[in-house]
Specification:
Structural class: mainly alpha
Number of helices: 8
Strand content: under 5%
Number of strands: 0
Distance between the termini: 40 Å
Radius of gyration: 21 Å
Order of helices and strands: HHHHHHHH
Shape: extended
Amino acid sequence: MDNYGAYAVPAVMLCIVLFGFLRRVPVFDAFVAGAKEGLQSSISILPTLVGLIMAVSMLSASGALDLLSSFLAPAANALGLPPQVMPLALIKPISGSGSTAVLTQIYKDCGPDSFAGRVASVMSGSTETTFYAVAVYFGAVGIKKTRHTIPAALVGDVTACILSAFTVRLFFR
């Protein structure tokens, strides 16, 4: 059986170019202008991204993440969360790649089908890299005051973390 899905992206690109030609849009000039704007946006958010990467690296290398996780373990137990997922709950709002590394470590230590592995999977899929997203999207459009965005997003992340254990219990026990 042929894989027709491989033709989807080239077909869409061809349709866009043809539509542009039919509407008499200078397609190449529009492409170059869009690429230039995208590059300028990337350059403008680069300092924020470098700061976030540095903060995550320092947090992990200093042992502060492990210390904070062990400090929060009693609260995690009270909320029904396995203590092994606390590093994931702490790093996910900051870094997607850092949280993927923590998730992989949870899988290695506990197993993907363990309670902790399942909670970590649900938590990873239902939380957001809040600070990264705010830095990238707000930085791209030049918004300096985030107002209620970060507190609201963090409340959503905490809710997702707590409900991840409840959901796993509901469906797997």
